[in-house]
Amino acid sequence: MLSGLCLCGKKALVKYFKAATGSEIIPGIIAIIQTFGSRINAHPHLHFLISEGGSDRKGCFHSVSHFNDDLLQKLFTREVFSLLVHKQLINLTLVQKILHWKHTGFHVHSKVRATSKQEAERVGKYMIRPILSLKRLSFDEAQGQVIYQDGKHSSKLERMDYLEFIARVTSHIPDKGQVMIRYYGLYSNAHRGKMQKEGDYPSHPPIIEDEASFKPSRGWAEMIKKVYEVDPLLCPNCRGQMHIISFIDDHKVIDKIISHLKLTFMTERPPPPQRVQQELLMAAEEMGEYF
Hints:
Elements: H1 2-21, E1 26-36, E2 42-55, E3 61-63, H2 69-86, H3 92-99, H4 117-127, E4 137-140, E5 145-149, E6 157-161, H5 162-170, E7 181-185, H6 189-198, E8 207-208, H7 219-228, H8 251-261, H9 274-287
Parallel strand pairs: 3-8
Antiparallel strand pairs: 1-2, 1-7, 2-3, 4-5, 5-6
Helix pairs in contact: 1-2
């Protein structure tokens, strides 16, 4: 499943870049798969070193200097759940339950920037760091226990039987043929070879600096219209087409707005049954649209 997890991260990034620029662009991605945490425990996660933007079909580079971690996290979460549902390792009922948790277990952090070759090398070394550090490792011969420091600057020490220590370390050895470092998009050998073969691989491609605002997908609005036969983007007063300014998903804020405006809602028809809701969710996942 590690290969699938890596592809989920790549797909989420590609969809994010499309939302940020409004164009189908190809970013450069160096992906590192790691299975261990600071305690040599099982903690599968990804490290991506990516270009701040990507190239379109015409060879123009679209710059994207700002990343919305919340949106990236939602895209990545949906991709992972879509994979697990497809593999029949989880059902939609449990997916919906987890999505309503305060902490789903998914996290995205994109604040680290490499502005020089030295910084890029430092980040790269961190991404491919080994499973454990010998400086944090010691052995109690009398007790036959291994002592490991939890974190570089932490005072927490974990003691474990030496057989358990060996089991932890060996559990993170990749399977035969398992590739832990992958290259996608502009950084892949296939893409660079194709561009060079076609003679369309400029050393300094034109750069489009202006970033377009996010363009939310209309898929959710179209599906609401099909199910409830009501256009959510049609103004009830002037019957004109409304434009999305922002999305509010905090229930407390929504309740305050409804209370302040003294709004009441009367549905013209009941919501679809649970079976139809699940079919709609699966259809939305197949189309790659999130709402």
